[in-house]
């Protein structure tokens, strides 16, 4: 059964609540842009493409369920709501990219209020469909690149965070490449980093890997270097992207930067999987990418279902427990930047970007 993280039908939207996974699969209704803003901020939905699509569709539902006096009132309403949605999370570019495209579209659409609303809804719905197709193409391109670069003997892959069906409209980017390599019979084993502090790896990627019967093992973030040293069958690290700067510097989940360094030390290919909507050609280098700081509670507390003395998980009772010394200061940047110099390839739905003889990516040609 395909994992459905975003349930959309015209006039209604619900998302699989990622705060309750992996122990409970509960759909959370999103009726308007305020619901979407809160769901993104609270990480009920997360992952760069997913937050863009949920924001776009939430506004589509709100528009479909509201009466407007004129086309200009719709345009103003859409502009204000998109500006508000963009402030929910700053690092991923997909959300502001989607907002810019949708705002341009309503401003350029002529006709009455209903015509402008219909144009917005059609464009938002297309983003949902396009993202799944783009991810499948990223998977296909990543598989071909791996065969060409690594070879056709089975190999293992390491990944971080969650970049799968839960982080996108479906299939996934980095996890999509793992899915494609597994589907081709080339995957020996997938290793998932736990991804502290928010545990997207242990909660969400592990859930998707188990769901798809992909042979996989969970490790803590601090085990990555020794894993590469002791498991030479790992030939590739594949990560997602929240924003790829013009020069290829890539912002992604905190911990990605250190993976790019250990990959170089161990001669393992370091690959970024990103739809072209994650490329921000206006931002020249990673220095220009705003890194979201998140609240200290993510480090000092953990939430999950209670485990009884026999090791049985009680799905009914979730608790938050405090795990750090009270009073300790906390630094919690949610993302870091892997430098282009340490990236071997950026796999998009349109093809794979590699550096030229001067060590430079040319991402403009993919837009
Ligand atoms: O804080 P998150 O969970 O939204 O961070 C997600 C990531 O860093 C992903 O790797 C990235 O958004 C790519 S998802 C296809």
UniProtKB/TrEMBL annotation:
GO terms for molecular function: S-methyl-5-thioribose-1-phosphate isomerase activity. Transmembrane segments: none annotated. It is found in: Cytoplasm; Nucleus. Its EC number is 5.3.1.23. One of its GO terms (biological process) is L-methionine salvage from methylthioadenosine. InterPro entries: IF-2B-related, IF-M1Pi, IF_2B-like_C, Initiation_fac_2B_a/b/d, M1Pi_N, NagB/RpiA_transferase-like. Pathway: Amino-acid biosynthesis; L-methionine biosynthesis via salvage pathway; L-methionine from S-methyl-5-thio-alpha-D-ribose 1-phosphate: step 1/6. It catalyses: 5-(methylsulfanyl)-alpha-D-ribose 1-phosphate = 5-(methylsulfanyl)-D-ribulose 1-phosphate. The record marks 161 as: Transition state stabilizer. It comes from the Eukaryota. Keywords: Amino-acid biosynthesis, Cytoplasm, Isomerase, Methionine biosynthesis, Nucleus. It is an enzyme of class 5 (isomerase). GO terms for cellular component: cytoplasm; nucleus. NCBIfam families: eIF-2B_rel, PRK05720.1, salvage_mtnA. Catalyzes the interconversion of methylthioribose-1-phosphate (MTR-1-P) into methylthioribulose-1-phosphate (MTRu-1-P). PANTHER family: METHYLTHIORIBOSE-1-PHOSPHATE ISOMERASE (PTHR43475). Belongs to the eIF-2B alpha/beta/delta subunits family. MtnA subfamily. HAMAP family: Salvage_MtnA. This is Methylthioribose-1-phosphate isomerase.
């Amino acid at each position: 059964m395909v994992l459905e993280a975003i349930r959309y039908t015209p006039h209604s939207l619900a998302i699989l609540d990622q705060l309750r996974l992996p122990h409970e699969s509960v759909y959370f209704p999103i009726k308007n842009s305020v619901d979407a803003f809160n769901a993104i901020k609270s990480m009920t939905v997360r992952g760069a493409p997913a937050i863009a699509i949920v924001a776009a569709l939430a506004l589509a539902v709100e528009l479909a369920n509201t009466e407007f006096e004129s086309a200009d009132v719709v345009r103003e309403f859409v502009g204000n709501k998109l500006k508000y949605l963009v402030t929910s999370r700053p690092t991923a570019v997909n959300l502001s990219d989607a907002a810019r495209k949708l705002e341009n579209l309503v401003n350029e659409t002529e006709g009455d209020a209903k015509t402008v609303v219909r144009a917005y809804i059609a464009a938002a719905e297309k983003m949902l469909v396009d993202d799944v197709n783009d991810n499948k193409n990223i998977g296909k391109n990543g598989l071909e690149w791996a065969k060409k670069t690594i070879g056709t003997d089975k190999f293992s892959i390491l990944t971080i965070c969650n970049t799968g069906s839960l982080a996108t409209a479906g299939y996934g980017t980095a996890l999509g490449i793992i899915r494609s390599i597994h589907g081709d019979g080339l995957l020996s084993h997938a290793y998932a980093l736990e991804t502290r502090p928010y545990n997207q790896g242990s909660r969400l990627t592990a859930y998707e890997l188990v769901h798809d019967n992909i042979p996989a093992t969970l490790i803590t973030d601090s085990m990555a270097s020794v894993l590469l040293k002791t498991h030479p069958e790992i030939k590739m690290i594949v990560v997602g992207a929240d924003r790829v700067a013009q020069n290829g510097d890539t912002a992604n989940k905190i911990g990605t930067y250190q993976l790019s360094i250990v990959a170089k030390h161990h001669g393992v290919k370091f690959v970024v999987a990103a739809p072209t909507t994650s490329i921000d050609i206006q931002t020249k280098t990673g220095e220009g990418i705003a890194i979201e700081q998140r609240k200290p509670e993510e480090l000092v507390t953990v939430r999950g279902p209670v485990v009884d003395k026999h090791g049985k998980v009680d799905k009914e009772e979730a608790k938050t427990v405090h795990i750090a010394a009270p009073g300790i200061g906390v630094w919690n940047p949610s993302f870091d930047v892997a430098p282009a110099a340490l990236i071997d390839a950026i796999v998009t739905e349109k093809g794979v970007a590699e550096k030229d003889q001067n060590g430079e990516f040319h991402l403009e040609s993919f837009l």
